[in-house]
UPF0033 domain-containing protein
Amino acid sequence: MNVNKLLDAKGLACPMPVVRAKKAMDELTSGQVLEIQTTDKGAKSDLPAWANASGHTVIDMKEENGVLTFWIQKG
């Protein structure tokens, strides 16, 4: 997968992962991919909801060693 930007949001509590994701997504052009790494368990529902509401697409998500990683394509 071709990732255009990596956002390290580990250690940040809600709503900061979504706030930072929005800011990072603003720097990308349509079709580019943002990888987000977070330890906030609420992000499991918050990031997909934000992406959907913003017209972006969650390509994939995984959880490993307490870190949630999302790949979101800009709409």
User: Anything to note?
Assistant: DSSP finds two helices and four strands in the chain. The two ends are 17 Å apart (CA to CA).
